[in-house]
Amino acid sequence: MKRKRLLFTVFGLLLLLSSASAQIDTTGGRYRRPIFPQVTVTRAVSYGTATTVAGTTQNLLLDLYEPAGDTVRRRPLVIMAHEGAFATGNRDDQFMTAICTRLAQLGYVTASIDYRLGFFPFDSANIGRASIRASQDMRAAVRFFRRDAATTRQYRIHPAYIFAGGSSAGAFMALQLGYLDKPAEVPAYVDLAQLGTLEGNGNPGYSSQIAGVINLCGAVGSPAWLEPGNVPLCSVHGTADAVVPYNIGRAFGQSFSPRIYGSGVLKPRADVVGIANVLRTLRGAPHVPYNGTSTAAVAYTDTTFQTVRDFLRPLLRQPGTVLSAAARQQTEAPQVYPVPASGEVFYLEAGHTAPFRPQQAELLDATGRVVRRFRWEQPRMAVPRGALPAGSYYLRTAELPARRVVLQ
């Protein structure tokens, strides 16, 4: 009898967790064809500030690309970051401009971000710290747009469809945002405590969760970062890349670089742990072959763009999906963050497509047993952890879809 009750409880939780949030309308060629010939670019939008390696304060800027004349109320967003080995580069480089413009012509809102650069001396610890600082800035950019979606809605972003990607160093950032989610996964020599937390400080109070990662010639510090349940991954990488290895190696082939794992390793790892993913292998291609104006570079740009386009569109829901008026009013699934939560509190954020109403909430453990009941009073609320041990829990209310809570 106990076993039956447990099975019914788990089945019920799975049904709650499968509740879909509001979908994106992909009809009429939207997100497939360049139906918006003109793109509006808003330059130098400030998305936060951060302390540089030199101890100064940097104003973090982004360029925003929007389809001109678009009237859709909630749009997917792609945040992109430029290359430059965490030492150089800027948000309006040739490739960033090209891919952000082309995605905006499909109907996406895109943002090319600047982030903190610089490290010295050239060793594993300082390279690692530079990559963490940059990823903190990308997380701040995600929270910037999620805050806007919850408040002024100036950019008309759908908060459930925020994707992050980049080229070379920018791809490292996006991969860390998507898959480096535990402080214990950061190598000890990086000394994460010196940098604060993985999340950083920009635009606090909102989730930095993304819906997918775009990895263009990037790598990770460990393939073990990719775990079951992680977001989908799109990779484009040349097999003759001498800067960021396609498989396993060191950046630039230099001993001062930590060992890194490129797209050729990430693909089988993602397959094994069940992460939806695609890898476009560019046979014989060097590092970032799409960045340039030569005939070959233009061809690689087309291939890269098409790969990203075809990866993203199904994630917006199946092609041809049409939303009913009722479906558009569905409440988005709440956000629970950080994932995992290792501090004294974790945060709840309700959806934004319907007015929030205070309600009773419960936390259930993996067996379906209620371990805490409390009143959810505000759309964004901090919940004290109290004596709850590490593990996986489920947040349940009468009105909102259930969400997983991971405590470390």
From TrEMBL:
Keywords: Hydrolase, Signal
SUPFAM superfamilies listed in its UniProt record: alpha/beta-Hydrolases
Domain BD-FAE-like: 62-185
Signal peptide span: 1-22
Source superkingdom: Bacteria
InterPro entries: AB_hydrolase_fold, BD-FAE-like_dom, GDXG_lipolytic_enzyme
GO MF annotations in UniProt: hydrolase activity
A family per Pfam: BD-FAE
Protein name, UniProt field: BD-FAE-like domain-containing protein
